[in-house]
Every structure is written in C-alpha cells, then in structure tokens.
Design goal:
alpha/beta, about 35% helix, about 500 residues, 13 helices
Length: about 500
C-alpha cells in the first residue's frame, strides 16, 4: 500500500509539472524534482499539528524532509533548508530585528518563506507587510485554484480563514482565490527566493488523523516551486532542533527548565509555580516520580495545551491566563506531571485522573472553591447522559439490557465525569485514596509483575488501596471485571 501511495504521489508530481505556471516548471532537461527541506519554527507560536500531525500528512515521502525548530529564529541552522515555515505568531512574542535579518539572509540565499495566518496576528501582518501584503480575516466561499489546479475543488477548514491584500498584485502568482476574487494563497519572487502567503485553513488541522491531507497535491507543487531557488544536499543531515538547541536551561529547586529567549520574561513565574506545586503533587500521589520521568520541563508559546513525553513535560506558558492567574496553571502543571508519575503503565482513565489530581492540588494550594466547582461541573456533564452513572462503562458501551451504546459525541463527557465521580466516591470514604492507590500500584503492578494494566488489575490495586474487595462495586457501575482475571492478587 505504501508503494502504491508513493507511485501515486510521483505520478501527480509529473502531472503538476505540465500544468503549473512557467516559473513553477523544473529546470530544463534536469529530469529531477526539487526536493524540499522544510523547517517549521515553533518558537513564536507552538502548534500541535505543526509538531506532530503535519509531517505524517504532507511530507512523509523521500526526498522531502521536514523538521521542527524550538529555538529562536535567529539561532536556527538554515544552511541545508530551502523552505522556512512560520505558522502564525503570537503577538506577545513579536519578531525581533535579528529574526528579520535571519529571514532576509535566507531569502537572499534562495530559500522559500511560507507565512500562514488566520488574519488575527498583528505580528504576522507586520512581517507580511515587508513583502507588500496583509492577511485579512474572513473570505467568501467557495475557494478555487487559479494555478496548480490539480483537483476540481479546493478544500478549506472552518478555522483560520483569511484572504490576502496585495499592494502590487502584478508581482504575485495567485494559487487560490475566494468567490470575491480575493487571493487566498499567493507567492512572489523575493531576492533569490520566494515568499508564499496563505490562509491557515488551506492546510489540515487534525493532528491525530493521518489521512487529513486536504489539498496535499497542490501544496506539494507550490512548495517545490518556492523551494526551487536554493540548492540543498539531500544526503546530508537535516535534524530537528529540539530542546537541546533551545537557548536557556535553568536547574533550580530540582527542576530542569528549558525555554527560548522570547519566553524569558515568563521563566521566573513558571519556576515559582512549578517549585511550589511539585511537593504538593508528590504528597497527593504518595510516591515520588518514576525514575527518569518528568525530569525536564520545556516552555512552549501557546495558551492551548501541553504534553508529557515521559522524561520531558511541555507546558503552555499562557495556560489559564497565566501569569495573571495561577489556579489553572497549578492544575495544568499537575496534569502533565501526573502523566509521567503514573508510568510505566498509563491509567485506564489517564486524562481524567491527571486533571482530577490537579484539582486536588488546587485545593491544597488555596483554590478550594474553584477546584470543587470544576470537579462538580465535570461530573454534572456526565450525568446528562447517565443520571446514576450506571448505564455505561467508561468507554460509553451499554451495560444495561435495552440501552443503546452512548453516541460518540457524548462519550468524552461520560468518560471524564464518571472517572471523577468514581474517585470522589472513594475519596469520601478514604481521603488519602489517591496516595494509597499509587503506592499500591507502584508496589504490586510493576513491569516485572504484570503484563498489562487493564481494568482487572486497576480494580485489584484499588481494592488494596481501599482495604476491601472493590470488584462487586465496580461491576455494579458497569465495569466488566473479574477478580480471577487480575494478575495483581490480594
């Protein structure tokens, strides 16, 4: 199947070579396709899709290569790159003179610069204005291809829609326009390279869906054109500039914190909240962090989330309006930390338990009213689908005769709310149940003791934590569990 997909992509490339405008055609008689070495800078605006989803959807075939850079633009190694992607810019982190100088030098070397925006970033517009263009929010549907027309229609996502205003339209090649004739994707020659501007909505946005590849054939043709001004060595290394290349690293209070220069104004506040939260999290969990887990924290420029990758925890610097407010950041720091704390086995309620412990840590750190409100609200959302929380299992499957499985759009609320409710029921009986549970898990459910951490082993560990057989109660609320099937014995 992979070979067939690759052959299809190559066939499409030959078709595009014949239908693209004159400046998009390959060098005469070269017989070679321009390879794209693209680097997406994540230091002004972190995007999960740019980090994970995009390379699987758009740039997964040789000879193209795609890397991410977490360091400042002015410290990037662009020597073997012919395409620089800048997906929006948070206005709290403006481009600096050294960034502009680096971009100018890259264009002078023949590199291609791609700017995407939904039209709301003043900084992205400030950069676009250097090339005689502006992003404007909104557009009129439908959008159509003007050049590189390789499909009957151009797909577009609902979010991040913008069109372009061009100071000198004659200098630009318009690739996509909207129903009003306004350009939505366009490029122009700039020094020896190219500048490509477009609406973010023309690219996929589903990080988890490998097949969300809207307009891929069109994009591949455009990137080959805008990368064609610079020669690269496809045999040489072209590696991600991950946190080991980021400018600042501080080790204090047992915290290993990494952040780029742009985020330096937020570092002290983050160090403070992490340092105060960490011992409280450990007290709630009842055990220290698993060896090597959660030992490094990297700050990312977004308010929209973070992740735990075992050793490394990434934290959104503006989560919950931080640093103006700290309650949500406490919950967030705890959430991502707990993902590392529970290893080597993830939990059956992995996301809910991380936030639930975050709410308990909020209580411990002086935010009791807000934490209890969040817990209650989460449970209430689940009760809308299952008033007594006994009709479905944790995955929305019916456990009552005559009751249909829960619709997919309701499962997440049920999963979260039921998990919160279960822990609240147990906490009412045993206020230290979280610590007792994780102490039992660490003692009886290591990798050398169980082959998997499923529902049966979870309830067995819970039984140890509660000091009684919990299997009957869990069965009464929809868990298909059997004490005899658990590897953990009590």
């Amino acid at each position: 199947m992979k070979k067939l997909m690759r052959y299809a992509a190559l066939a499409a490339a030959f078709l595009l070579a014949a239908t693209a405008p004159a400046d998009a055609k390959k060098k005469k008689d070269s017989g070679k396709t321009t390879a794209v070495h693209a680097v997406n800078n994540l230091s002004h605006y972190y995007n999960f899709h740019a980090d994970w989803g995009f390379p699987r959807q758009y740039m997964r075939y040789s000879p193209d290569k795609y890397i991410k850079s977490w360091c400042c633009i002015y410290n990037m190694d662009l020597s073997n790159a012919n395409q620089l992607f800048l997906w929006d810019c948070d206005d709290r982190l403006p481009y600096v003179d050294r960034d502009y100088a680096t971009i100018d030098s890259f264009l002078a070397d023949g590199g291609g610069l791609m700017l995407l925006s939904g039209g709301n970033s003043q900084e992205q517009n400030k950069l676009a204005s250097r090339y005689g263009a502006q992003f404007v929010t909104g557009l009129e549907m439908p959008v159509t291809a003007v050049n590189f027309k390789v499909a009957d229609s151009v797909e577009i996502k609902r979010h991040g829609r913008a069109h372009l205003q061009l100071d000198k339209p004659s200098q630009w090649t318009v690739v996509v326009q909207d129903a009003a004739g306004e350009p939505v994707l366009a490029y122009k020659k700039e020094k020896k390279g190219y500048v490509l501007l477009g609406s973010r909505a023309l690219l996929a946005d589903n990080t988890d869906n490998r097949n969300d590849t809207i307009n891929r054939t069109m994009w591949e043709a455009v990137w080959r054109t805008t990368a064609s001004g610079k020669a690269i060595d496809t045999a040489s290394d072209f590696d991600n500039e991950y946190i080991d290349k980021v400018e600042n690293n501080v080790v204090a209070d047992g915290i290993d914190l990494t952040y780029n220069d742009y985020l330096a104004p937020y570092a002290d506040a983050m160090l403070d909240v992490i340092a105060r939260s960490k011992p409280v999290i450990e007290a709630r969990m009842g055990v220290p962090l698993s060896p090597g887990m959660g030992s490094k924290v990297v700050l990312i420029p977004t308010g929209g989330g973070g992740y735990s990758a075992g050793e490394v925890i990434a934290l959104a610097i503006w989560w919950g309006d931080f640093p103006k407010q700290e309650d949500s950041m406490i919950e967030f720091v705890t959430h991502e930390s707990v993902h590392s704390w529970v290893l080597p086995f993830a939990e059956i309620w992995n996301e809910p338990i991380a936030t639930y412990v975050g709410n308990l840590v909020m209580i411990d750190m002086g935010h009791k009213e807000e934490a209890e409100r969040r817990i209650a609200a989460c449970i209430d959302r689940a009760r809308k689908a299952d008033p007594n929380l006994d009709l479905y299992d944790m995955r929305g499957k019916s456990c009552k005769e005559g009751v249909e499985d829960l619709p997919r759009d309701k499962v997440n609320d049920l999963h979260w709310g039921k998990a919160f409710w279960i822990w609240e029921q147990m906490r009412a009986e045993n206020p230290d149940v979280v610590a007792d549970y994780f102490q039992a898990k660490r003692k009886y459910a290591g990798k050398d003791q169980v082959t998997k951490y499923d529902d049966n082993n979870t309830v067995a560990v819970m039984s140890i934590a509660m000091g009684r057989d919990m299997f009957p109660w869990f069965r009464s609320i929809g868990f298909d569990v059997d004490r005899e099937k658990a590897e953990v014995k009590f």
